[in-house]
Amino acid sequence: MALATPLRRLLPVAAAPATAPDPAAPSSLTPPRRALSLRHGRLRSSLAAFPSPSPEPRSRSLTAPSASASAGGRPTVLVTEKLGTAGLDLLRAFANVDCSYELTAEELRAKVSLVDALVVRSGTQVTREVFEAARGRLRVVGRAGVGIDNVDLQAATEAGCLVVNAPTANTVAAAEHAVALLASMARNVAQADASLKAGKWQRSKYIGVTLVGKTLGVLGFGKVGSEVARRAKGLGMDIIAHDPYAPVDRARAIGVDLVSFDEAISTADFISLHMPLTPSTEKLFNDETFAKMKKGVRIINVARGGVVDEEALLRALDNGTVAQAALDVFTEEPPPRDSKLVQHENVTVTPHLGASTTEAQEGVAIEIAEAVIGALRGDLAATAVNAPMVPAEVLSELSPYVVLAEKLGRLVVQLVAGGSGVKVVKVVYSSTRDPDDLDTRILRAMVTKGIVEPISSAFVNIVNADYVAKQRGLRIIEERILLDGSPETPLDSIQVHLTNVESKFGGALSDAGDIRVEGKVKDGSPHLTLVGSFSVDVSLEGNLILCRQVDQPGVIGKVGSILGNMNVNVSFMSVGRTARGKQAIMAIGVDEEPEKEALKLIGDTSSVEEFVFLKL
Ligand SMILES: NC(=O)c1ccc[n+]([C@@H]2O[C@H](COP(=O)([O-])OP(=O)(O)OC[C@H]3O[C@@H](n4cnc5c(N)ncnc54)[C@H](O)[C@@H]3O)[C@@H](O)[C@H]2O)c1
Ligand SMILES: O=C(O)[C@H](O)COP(=O)(O)O
């Protein structure tokens, strides 16, 4: 097996089975009772070569192809909101693109089962029902923007669907819009404009307030918040910020003090909101918090409508606590036509225009198109929202170990006898690297994939591996063994132990009674190096027969000739024994699956005490 596969391509979403995960799956993993009863048709080896959805020749991916990809076709991308042309052009060069705007929820559900990726902005609700309707085909949701509050991330993760966003391209546009609202609110620009156009000349009515020397409280000191702060400093404002997760140094570097929430809201003359909408920020601005604000405060919201209790804001405007508000975003978009908040004379509104500049939209479109295409190809997604982001160089280094991890999982689960099912998996990494220098998340995910996929209808990738394991009552314990030596290669070996299970092949049991297999990477290829307590050395390719026998001359020859007589090509063979004349394990790699008759003859061979046939 060639392992030239660039690891960037090994990530999660290149493919999916056409079937959805089995909702009626058992809570633990009970493998088939007989080795030969494995449902071969359902063994989706991630290593099987398959046509790539990409127009370019691609390498193998660790995941199985989607319906369209497996048919050798281009993937299909559904775009449900207007996207910049540069991004659309990129998508069209790679995929069939269906631009269908203003779909009803029902229409969206009808379309998603026909597409591999979905690209949305904030106006499309990608709900659990959408993922269910996709029936396993949808592999990527691309959010052309920052906020992913319109995507049900949990449902996406459960479906193994990667969500990517475009987090940087609209930052400046949003910050500029916040500053535009801040300045126009302070000088009543919108109200005065409407008044003059209505034929009035009301100079004394529209006396504003100055910005210089006023305190701006920036709530949420992330990308947009810090850009707003930088710009407002240029307007002569004093800036304070509150963000529980922002680094103090970054704030200090641009002359901003990070303060507590209460201090920010009680001392600011202007408050600009820049946090995401999450369960903990929903309605964070409510009657109680408005009551703590300085009387006559002015509020700008370019973040999300849902962080403000809009009825409480209306009350605060009416009682003068809040002098003015400038709102780009609303709990319900578009807001009702008769919304008292929108109609309020001290409120300036824009229809969610924060990201709407020509430049930002082109940038966002390119950013999301590249992310979606990369994800469909199985590349590392740098802007993944629901999957671990493993740096490209780490992935590249881990490439052969990723293959090894899945092979070991696939192999070990086939050694389990029916019965109680697999509940605890221990993965032991031996490495000279400090644990902090070894990111094992992708390896853990691939062991899980190897264990779960052969015995269920679940599709497992790096997005949903932990979820699937949990759902099935599978506990994955990771342990490290720190070896002496120079940390040039990331790992020496990976062991996978299944505890508290019976094995159909007693030779696979360790002294502690676990089913144990170990593998190493040799010359870039995965090798099986330990079965139970027996050292072997076989390349993990094709199919494998493990035989346990009494160590004596002639057994290897007998088994070899049974296979030869049946036209089964032996690709490699390795024997490991405890001591001369005692127990030995013979590991035989075979290209073809032997007929049952051949397997029976092996079983009947004198000195062969047990054997098992395994598909890798
Ligand atoms: N109106 C628009 O068109 C528009 C455009 C871009 C971004 N946005 C919105 O602006 C917001 C910020 O975007 P961003 O790109 O700066 O995101 P970001 O992730 O860079 O910054 C968000 C910041 O909010 C902080 N935060 C989280 N919970 C908080 C809390 N309880 N109190 C204070 N801070 C908290 C985070 O630590 C983070 O630093 C998002 O809601 C995004 O959806 C709107
Ligand atoms: O979160 C964002 O990126 C902004 O709210 C922009 O949303 P939009 O893509 O719908 O303009």
Automatic annotation (TrEMBL):
Compartmental location: Plastid, Chloroplast
Pfam families: 2-Hacid_dh, 2-Hacid_dh_C, ACT, PGDH_inter
Catalytic activity field: (2R)-3-phosphoglycerate + NAD(+) = 3-phosphooxypyruvate + NADH + H(+)
This enzyme's EC code(s): 1.1.1.95
Keyword Transit peptide: yes
GO terms for biological process, alphabetical: L-serine biosynthetic process
Any one Gene Ontology cellular component term annotated for this protein: chloroplast
One Gene Ontology molecular-function label: NAD binding
Pathway this chain belongs to: Amino-acid biosynthesis; L-serine biosynthesis; L-serine from 3-phospho-D-glycerate: step 1/3
Chief subcellular location: plastid
Gene3D superfamilies to which the protein is assigned, alphabetical: 3.30.70.260, D-3-phosphoglycerate dehydrogenase, domain 3 (3.30.1330.90), NAD(P)-binding Rossmann-like Domain (3.40.50.720)
Record's compositionally biased regions (Low complexity): 13-35, 60-73
CDD domains in the record: ACT_3PGDH-xct (cd04902), PGDH_4 (cd12173)
Domain ACT residue range list: 544-616
Alphabetized UniProt keyword annotations: Amino-acid biosynthesis, Chloroplast, NAD, Oxidoreductase, Plastid, Serine biosynthesis, Transit peptide
Chain intervals for the UniProt region annotation (Disordered): 13-73
Entry similarity comment: Belongs to the D-isomer specific 2-hydroxyacid dehydrogenase family.
Protein name: D-3-phosphoglycerate dehydrogenase
Record organism: Urochloa decumbens
